[in-house]
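User: I'm preparing a small set of examples for a lab meeting where we compare how different chains pack in three dimensions. I only have the primary sequence for this one, and I'd like the structure in token form so I can line it up with the others. Please keep the answer compact; I'll paste it straight into my notes.
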Amino acid sequence: METMYQRSRIQEESLYYETLKHTGEYPIIGVNTFLSSKGSPTILRRRSFEQRKRKGSTDRNCREPEKQPTPEESKKALHDLQQAAIKNENMFAVLMEATKYCSLGQLTQAMFEVGGQYRRNM
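Assistant: Understood. Below is the structure token output for the 122-residue chain.
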């Protein structure tokens, strides 16, 4: 107990297990693999940071100019979302509408302004 052997051993095994899952050497159906229609498992690979960054810029560039949200639409959608949170209403429909005009960062910031940010007690 004094040497914390059990804890370090558990941490080592956990890291090893997560590494195997991430590389695909330890397939788990539904987590890092899925069954194709023929029944054989297909490994899912995580994208690198560069790939995710490239994909985000591609999504922004693919929007048609006439369909770009205006600042007024974004502000109204964020205001509606905040009001739904303050009034303790069901926010799902309002949130889905706000995603048409606002980024994830804007939505998150609006919710932090209303409800604060969760901080775990230490």
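A couple of notes for your slides: Helices lie at 5-23, 49-62, 71-86, 92-98, 104-115. The chain has a mean pLDDT of 78.

User: Perfect, thanks.
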